[in-house]
Every structure is written in structure tokens, then in C-alpha cells.
Amino acid sequence: MTSNDFSYQDWNGCDHKNQDLSHYILTGTQINGSDLRGCILNGAKLQNAQLCGTDLTNASLRGADLRDANLQYTKLSGVNLSGANVQGTLFKGSTGLTEETKRELKTRDAIFDDSVPRTTNLKWWIQYVLIPLITLLLGSSGIVGVLEYLKKQSSTSPIPSPTVQPVTPSSPSTKPTPTTKPTGEPKRI
């Protein structure tokens, strides 16, 4: 861990106003309700970070990686987001951005109250669509259930198969066979 790696830390409610946190690694960090006014976060890695209710007034996030970060209800007056990766970043209820800035961020796949990202986030589709679907199919009512049903059906009503009778060679009869026909009278010589 490098000295500026604070990934997955709890910074909720912290006061870092006017601090230079450029190139800090804050991946998945909880920074909810914090005071980051005037903070410099240029080039910071904030993927999946939680910044709900944070005050980012006059902060600089130039070139920051904010993919899938949660900036709901943040104060963004005077914030600099030029060159920031905002793909999948949630800005719902945030204040301080002009309509022009919102439109520009939407073109970079930021999510506001009424917007849907333009591009498909493959990780999201795998995690929230594909895996649950596969789990459903492989669950007790899915493919496994169908296979168990078929197995049960085949054991209760087997398909008749042709029976083969063994052929045994015939053996000579042990009963004497008459060569002459008996008549009522004995033959005289």
C-alpha cells in the first residue's frame, strides 16, 4: 500500500477542505457528508467511492477517475470536472452545476435524475443481470429442476425396450418314436 492509497477506508464526515489530495487512491472509500471545499483531487482515483452529501464547492477534480462513484446530493458549485471520467457516476439531487455542465457530463455517461447512461457498462450487466439470471436458471426451479424432473420421469415410467428370447438348441427327444403303426391284431409270420 502506497502512502496515498486509502482505498475502501471510512472517511465519512471528514474535514479535508483546501487540502491537496491529487493522485490519491480512494477507490471504494466512504466519504459521505464530508467537507472537501476547495480540495484538490486532480487525477485522484475515486471509482465506486461514496460521496453522498459531501460539499465539493470549488474543488478541483481535473482528470479524476469517478467511474461508478456516488455523488448524490453533493454541493458542486464551482467544481472543476474537466477531463474527469464520470462514466456511471451518479449525480442525482446534486446542486451547483449549470444545465450546460449537466448536458456535457451526460454525454460522458454521467447519471442524473432523468438520464440513463448511453453506453453499456459490461461489469454492471454481468453483476446485476447475467449472474442472477444464471443463478435463477441453475436454481431448484431452473435447469437443475428440469433435469431432476426428467430423471424422476424416466425412473417411474421406463421406455419399453424390445425383449430378446434366448434361442436354445433342440435336443433329441427321449421318447421312442414308433416305426410301425400298431393295429388291433398282432402280425403273424
Coarse morphology: elongated
Along the chain, the helix and strand elements come as HHH
Q: Approximately how much helix is present in the residues?
A: 10-25%
Largest sheet: none
Low confidence ranges = none
Number of helices: 3
In terms of quaternary structure, the protein is single chain
> How large a portion of the residues is in β-strands, by DSSP E?
under 5%
* Count of beta strands: 0
Cα radius of gyration in angstroms: 41 Å
Instruction: Tell me the distance between the termini.
Output: 129 Å
Counting helices, strands and paired strands, the structural category is mainly alpha
The whole-number mean of residue pLDDT values reads 82
Describe the structure.
The protein is elongated. The longest helix is centred in the C-terminal third of the chain and has 17 residues, at 122-138. It is built from three helices and no strands. The protein is 21% helix and 0% strand. The protein is an all-alpha fold and 189 residues long.
Highlighted features:
mainly alpha, 189 residues, 21% helix
